[in-house]
């Protein structure tokens, strides 16, 4: 849906997961084996992955100042049990949180969120304001106040609706 470039670093995983469903058409990319393989998911993992996706969407809507799209399990609860490991680089001593070896999708998402917090990029990952979209996008606007995944599509539609309402 979006014409924006992907989120930086590990947040690209979060953005890609949230954007596996097109709310307007109902098409869910996780229904295909190829898409599940991209996230390292088995068919048995689908329910949990979808729950994680919708909890992430609710948080990204909150980043943009919008209420949740529906009732979801709080993201903190889903990530609380995600196994993470502190990896220390022997060359320079730098440390990062990473998903435990062979860890589930929730672990990789938790590591991406942690890295985004450290980088200061987490709060700029948002969900589109349009109720029929809620596509995840990384807000690169100077003030960090972007509202739509695409100004040419969702932004233009919202402005046209507002204009016609007048």
Could you characterize what this model shows?
This protein has helices at residues 11-18, 33-38, 46-63, 75-80, 105-119, 151-165; strands at 84-88, 95-99, 125-127, 136-138. The chain is mainly alpha-helical and 166 residues long. It has a two-stranded antiparallel sheet. Strands 3-4 form a two-stranded antiparallel ribbon. The longest helix is centred in the N-terminal third of the chain and has 18 residues, at 46-63. The mean pLDDT is 89.
DSSP helix count?
A: 6
- Helix percent band: 40-55%
What amount of the residues lies in strands? 5-15%
Rg (C-alpha, Å): 17 Å
Biggest pleated-sheet summary = 2 strands, antiparallel
SSE layout:
Layout: H1 11-18, H2 33-38, H3 46-63, H4 75-80, E1 84-88, E2 95-99, H5 105-119, E3 125-127, E4 136-138, H6 151-165
Brief rundown of the structure:
Helix content is 41%, strand content 10%.
């Amino acid at each position: 849906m979006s014409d924006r470039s992907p989120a930086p670093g590990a947040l690209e995983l979060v953005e890609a997961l949230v954007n596996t469903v097109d709310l307007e058409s109902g098409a869910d990319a996780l229904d295909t084996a190829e898409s599940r393989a991209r996230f390292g998911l088995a068919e048995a993992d689908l329910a949990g992955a979808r729950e994680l996706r919708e909890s992430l969407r609710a948080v990204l809507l909150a980043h943009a100042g919008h209420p949740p799209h529906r009732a979801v399990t709080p993201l903190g609860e889903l990530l609380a049990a995600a196994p993470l490991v502190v990896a220390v680089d022997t060359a320079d001593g730098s440390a990062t949180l990473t998903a435990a070896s062979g860890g589930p999708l929730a672990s990789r998402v938790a590591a991406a969120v942690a890295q985004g917090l450290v980088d200061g990029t987490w709060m700029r990952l948002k969900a589109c304001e349009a109720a029929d979209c809620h596509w995840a996008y990384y807000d690169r606007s100077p003030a960090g106040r972007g509202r739509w995944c695409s100004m040419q599509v969702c932004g233009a539609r919202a402005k046209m609706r507002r204009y016609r309402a007048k």
